[in-house]
Amino acid sequence: MAGTAGGVDKNQYGCGSELWAIHDAVQRAWDRGLRKITLESNCLDAVRILNGKSTSLLGNGLVATIFKLLRYDWMVSINHINCTCNGVADRLATLSKANSIDDLQLLEPPAEVLSLLQMEAVDFCSL
User: Fold this and answer.
1) Which residues form the RNase H type-1 domain (predicted)?
2) Facing residues of 77 across strands?
3) Residue 79: which H helix or E strand, with range?
């Protein structure tokens, strides 16, 4: 995507870095040809903003750019998920920040997430 999306302070509204991550994920999904995605975030502020339930960052360049992406011809669902329910995703995201790879396919879970997978499987089964 050419140009700049504008910025959000990392700590502004507690969701600046999450909004950048959402922007990058949505842009990557579109570029890969995905046309139906579900995006889950543990940042309730970001979910509310992008679902039109909050006007706290209305007019912000980054948010406007995300809204533009969301208006493309595709289906995007944005849901809030409790942070205790997405420890594996959070850990994988943290691991990906340490690597400069754009695209990685995992054939098996990295050792760093195995214990989280087991804990989340137990929690899921107890629902």
Assistant:
1) 15-94
2) 38
3) strand 75-80
What is the SS3 assignment for 57?
coil
Q: How far apart are CA 44 and CA 14, in angstroms?
A: 9
Q: Are 97 and 59 in contact (CB under 8 A)?
A: no
Contact indicator for 31, 103 with CB cutoff of 8 Å: no
Q: Give residue 99's pLDDT.
A: 64
- This prediction has a pTM of 0.68
pLDDT of residue 105: 72
pLDDT of residue 1: 36
All structural domains of the chain with their residue ranges: 12-125
- DSSP letter string, 64-96: HHHHHHHTSSSEEEEEE--GGG-HHHHHHHHHH
Q: Are 48 and 75 in contact (CB under 8 A)?
A: no
Which amino acid is present at 127? L
